[in-house]
Amino acid sequence: MIEEVFADAKERMTKAVEAAKESFATVRTGRANPALLQNLMVDYYGTPTPLPQLASVANQDARSLIITPYDKGAMKAIEQAIRDMHNLGANPTNDGSVVRVTLPELTQERRKEFVKIVKARAEDARVGVRNARRSAKDDLDALKSEVGEDDVARAEKELEALTKQFTDQVDEAFKRKEAELLEV
Fold first, then answer.
1. Which of 167, 161, 172 is nearest to 125 (CA)?
2. Does the predicted TM-score (pTM) go above 0.90?
3. What gap in Å lies between CA 162 and CA 69, rounded to an integer?
4. CA 69/CA 3 separation, integer angstroms
5. Residue 124: is it exposed, middle or buried by C-beta count within 10 angstroms (0-12/13-18/19+)?
6. How far apart are alpha carbons 88 and 82 in whole angstroms?
7. Is 159 exposed, middle or buried, given 0-12, 13-18 or 19+ CB atoms closer than 10 A?
8. pLDDT digits (tens, 9 = 90+) for 89-103
9. Where, if anywhere, are coiled coils annotated (predicted)?
10. What distance in Å separates the CA atoms of residue 41 and residue 50, rounded to the nearest whole number?
11. Tens digit of pLDDT for each residue in 42-64?
């Protein structure tokens, strides 16, 4: 039973770390990356649709992306959605078949803003890991009568070590992203 609690906690903590890494990828660094537009919702004929379902996104060079829509009728909607992205600061252009997005150079001030955004997302991930720990601890407390207090106490120590391992993973991912953001 304790193993089941651990398996569930580990799975939830892993999901929290993976969600944080995906969230970090959407924050712009100095280079253009298709992941920047991964979560972009486009108003496609009145329905919010994720950009990857409407178009392919590829790097053209270090500071520009090319978006090739599957339906040419979606080009205006894709352009508008990119213009409305507040943290991108790009002005897309289209030549009738593709949308080109050239990203402006990041100023030091803008880089620091992005570090704050990533820091907040890292804290959200740590909270997710701690919530998984709290849930697992409640499950372990419920098992005290069945497996004994000594086993539960030992399991709680292992749970703390597991929690530290996953929060360290979040911290490491944050440090990598911060270094990438502040690199000029």
1. 167
2. no
3. 44
4. 48
5. middle
6. 8
7. buried
8. 778 888 888 999 888
9. 145-172
10. 4
11. 999 889 999 999 999 998 887 88
